[in-house]
Amino acid sequence: MAGKAPKFPKMGKQGSSAGRGRRAPRFGVVVARFNEPISKRLLDGALEAFRSQGVDPSQVEVHWVPGSLELSQAALHLARSGRFAAIVCLGVVIRGETPHFEHVAREAAAGIREVGLSTGVPTTFGVVTAFTEEQAWERAGGKVGNRGEEAALAALEMAAMVSRLTRKHG
């Protein structure tokens, strides 16, 4: 990740530092298989981010879908299940010779945003949109950072915020 990682409460098996005794939060990760080698690198970044913040691997559930357009539908099902504190969506869309790139990227972003807004479950966007495969690799753990890591850290931060607000105003 470019820059310094933000500080989050450690989330181990006994729950966050703010809620001892609470059940540990679970996180869903949905990954698009299209451009799978790059998507796998994004997933590796996300899983490492969760681990580095004290999330036990058993608290993270990974689901693969065909492509970036399917991310939001899968995320919606996970969010509606009520089992997850946040959902991370990961994928790769690389510009080709047709306008397909713009449609897929725009609709993936809109769908993922809609899941979070309609369910209240934080749903983060870790979809790399790049002009070339080389640019995509740079955003999946190269010199530009790892968008999967960033999406996982955003999910942790948003889940903690929602949890605080729910306890405070719930």
Topology:
Elements: E1 11-12, E2 15-16, E3 27-32, H1 36-52, E4 60-65, H2 71-80, E5 86-94, H3 100-119, E6 123-130, H4 133-138, E7 140-142, E8 145-146, H5 147-169
Please explain how this structure is put together.
The chain has 170 residues and is of the alpha/beta class. The protein has a domain at 47-58 and 69-83 and 91-170: Rossmann fold (3-Layer(aba) Sandwich). The protein is built from 5 helices and 8 strands; from the N terminus they run E-E-E-H-E-H-E-H-E-H-E-E-H. The strands form 3 sheets. A 4-stranded parallel sheet has the order 4-3-5-6, sandwiched between helices. A two-stranded antiparallel sheet has the order 1-2. Strand 5, helix 3 and strand 6 (123-130) form a beta-alpha-beta unit. Helix 1 (36-52) packs across helix 5 and helix 2 runs parallel beside helix 3. The N and C termini lie far apart (34 Å). Mean pLDDT is 88; it is low at 1-8 and 11-21.
Provide the descriptors you would attach to this structure in a database record:
170 residues, Rossmann fold, 4-stranded parallel beta sheet
